[in-house]
Amino acid sequence: MRPRATLLVRHAREMLTMGDALPPRDAKGTWDPSHLGLVHDGAVAACDGVIVAVGTTAEVERAVELAPDAEVIEAGDRVLAPGLVDAHTHALFAGDRAHEFSLRVQGASYAEIAAAGGGIAASVRSLRACSDEDLVALLRARVARMRSYGVTTVEVKTGYALEARHELRCLDAMAACAGVVPTFLPLHAVPPELRGAPDGRARYLASVRNAMLPAVVAQGKARFIDAYIDGPGFSVAEARPVLEAARAMGLRARLHVGQFEDVGGAELAAELGAASADHLEHVSDEGLRAMAEAGVTAVLLPGAAFSLGQTPPDARRMRALGVPVALATDCNPGTSRTENLTLMAAFGVRQMGLTTVEAWHAITRAAAVSLGVSNCGHLARGAAADVVLFDLASWEALPYAFGGPVASWSSARAPSPQARRFGDS
Ligand code: NIG
Ligand code: FE
Fold first, then answer.
1. Quick one: 333 and 234 in the same domain?
2. Which residues are near ligand 2, the ion (C-beta closer than 5 Å)?
3. Which ligand is closest to the CA of 258, given by its number?
4. Domain annotation covers residue 321
5. In the chain, how many domains are there?
6. Model-level pTM?
7. Which of 126, 171, 280, 321 has its CA 20 to 30 A from that of 160?
8. Measuring from each residue's beta carbon to the nearest atom of ligand 1, which residues come in under 6 Å?
9. What separation in angstroms does the CA of 127 have from each of 162, 213, 233, 249?
């Protein structure tokens, strides 16, 4: 019996299935569009939020039984692709830090601004003042805007709460938003109320390990743990015990590493079998080799490098060393106030040395793999029906036509339980 379809998107001049993971970089730098799973006159059929057929329009129409009230979308000259996956954001924040950007442009450093009471501490004060309803509304609005860029799955970190009750409230808000993968980020900074205390740092580390972490695990909403392993953040020695305890409780790591200084975070990510090491503006070849060996994805954040005026990391070097590469917005009020993942793809190509084929992978399949959401980031039978039509003349136009909202249609994502959305991996 042919499967029933309630949604059919058909006659796309180009469809990208992103079917296979990208192989290691080849001599030509992986320009071959066959790595995109390119189908001409492509179509996708779905039922109850799950894809039931993918192929040419003729193949899909033969394969499925269309329900009488099925929605049929004519894709035409648009590019049909899986919903994009933003694998690193701090999108649950309140307030604005535009003035810090102005100070940086005038020469102040991120560390100087933080030491003067701005930075993460400023966002902590704003977030803690929000009601539960505000938190959900803030996040839903941002996730909706991300949808206009074609993003249907978003990783979101805590880390502007830094206190058990508020961290749990943030994770509750994330669980109320469809398409969000929540990450617990306790080691983002020492909270403002403990910063001045002589043993404040040690007390905070102990409270994260002994109280906050068990409470978050008991709540059961976080999928990952993160720590900011960097000069202005936490050392490997400080973060390791917390991350090891989290791993023993079932939370895998995705880590902020080497944004300002290489303090050994890439090696720690490899040692812990982390899902990802992110930023990597400062990383050694040894660190990258360790990541490649352990299968740790490099999640690169061109928006942060742009906003901080830094030299962007060399993604080509990472690919050449065998490290899987994803791109993400790092959407946050301090260092990357953007919701636009397709713009990050353009930066990845023009400023970090990725090919356009690699950039598509970096915002779909590779990002989904790093988040463990194997039903997202590609179009295949059984995958989530996160289907987007991009207003692009061809896949090649992704970094060429940069900056605008490019998703003119996206399959509606019914608010369904996390377990069903992401329960397969
Ligand atoms: O990924 N540097 C650490 N975390 C964020 C910035 C957070 C903030 O400044 O609010 C980042 O760049
Ligand atoms: Fe970040």
1. yes
2. 330
3. 1
4. yes
5. 2
6. 0.96
7. 280
8. 90, 119-120, 123, 228, 256, 259, 304, 330, 332-335
9. 10, 20, 20, 27
